[in-house]
Amino acid sequence: MKAIVLYKSCSPEELNISEFPVPEGKPGWVLIKVRAFGINRSELIMRSYEANSPYMKLPRIPGIECAGEIEDPCDSNFTKGQRVIALMGGMGRSFDGSYAEYTLVPSKNVFKVDTTLGWEELAAIPETYYTAYGSLFDSLKLKPEDILLIRGGTSALGLSAIQLVKSVGGTVLASTRNENKRDLLLSQGTDNVLIDNETFTEQLFSLHPKGVNKVLDLIGPSTLLESARLVRHHGIICSTGVLGGKGMLNNFDPIKDLPSGIYLTGFFSNYPTQEIINDIFEHLNQHKLRPIISRVFSLDEIGQAHTLMENNTANGKVIVRI
Ligand SMILES: NC(=O)c1ccc[n+]([C@@H]2O[C@H](COP(=O)([O-])OP(=O)(O)OC[C@H]3O[C@@H](n4cnc5c(N)ncnc54)[C@H](OP(=O)(O)O)[C@@H]3O)[C@@H](O)[C@H]2O)c1
User: Fold this and answer.
1) For residue 96, what is the DSSP state?
2) Average pLDDT over the chain, rounded to an integer
3) In this structure, are 156 and 241 located in the same domain?
4) Distance between CA atoms of 272 and 113, rounded to whole angstroms?
5) Which of 92, 129, 218, 314 lies in the 20 to 30 Å Cα band around 162?
6) Which helix (H) or strand (E) holds 102?
């Protein structure tokens, strides 16, 4: 089969198609014919430097998610030809992932989907909407009366979160560093756009003098403690992204660094279940939500797909169609 195989950390231009054996089915696993997959930041991190880490076993086919058809159900209850999505659980990291014509995935990370969406739109959903949905409705316990700030609003995840907040009637403020992306945020239903510059907190407090009551922080540890000062008493901050490039809080003093009565949480997309995937597709169907697709590439254009995301000019989900 054709596959993108990582032998070491490399530049986007060095990602090339290789011939690789089609994986063989085995008990507990499912062979999927990949139809399309979304590109993720974690794949950029793995390609650019993490592949050289001692804990990464190479060669490795990257790709943490995909949409496709069951090629070999092995000992699972899936049937050949069934439309499925697959994500996470070590996909593309501890075992080979979706940057290929076929991928072998543990059956617990494969989910049937009830949708009429085409392959490209379907491929834009698993990781992005699962993470947005979990962050908002599980971690942040989003309610229609909430005023939510999304930091990193123009990311694929941010845009999907804006849609989801508006679908339940919440108020959403979304941030970008780039004034030119204001219309992108407004087009998804953002109530107020905040420009992430030195006047950021003033912009927020001029709109909501008491602050917001929830924050979805996709920039992460580099902005988290500032976010904590933008929420009202008993507000919640969910740290889901690391767009700011900092993955951890150093010397974090929970007593002094967090205002009293502010709740800090996170969301990790590693544990999807069929029940939650069903809820997400039902929600998308019911509210007629469609993913924002930036561009669709072919497998041999994978380097261009990585470059587009790396340049922060995608403005939506980057998709590769097999
Ligand atoms: N917790 C989980 O399980 C989980 C799951 C999926 C994704 N994630 C994380 O969620 C984040 C969003 O993922 P995505 O795929 O949706 O990203 P994406 O679409 O590639 O995000 C692109 C946006 O990121 C913003 N950005 C880039 N660098 C930034 C910086 N230094 N400071 C502030 N903003 C910056 C840019 O916004 P502007 O140029 O408009 O400012 C750009 O439009 C990533 O950190 C990803 O790793 C986490």
Assistant:
1) -
2) 97
3) yes
4) 13
5) 92
6) strand 102-106
Supply the CATH number for residue 191's domain: 3.40.50.720
pLDDT tens digits, 139-192: 999 999 999 999 999 999 999 999 999 999 999 999 999 999 999 999 999 999
Residue of 88, 218, 219, 276 to mutate, ligand 1, most atoms within 8 A of C-beta: 218
Residues 83 and 138 in one domain: no
Name the residue among 24, 25, 34 with its Cα closest to residue 63.
34
Number of structural domains (the chain) is 2
| 13 plus 95 within the same structural domain | yes
Residues of the chain below pLDDT 50: none
Range of the domain at 155: 130-266
Six-digit token string for 196: 């992430």
* H or E, element range at 212: strand 212-217
Using CB distances shorter than 6 Å, the residues near ligand 1 are 40-42, 127, 131, 152, 154-157, 176-178, 181, 218-219, 240-245, 267-269, 309, 312, 314
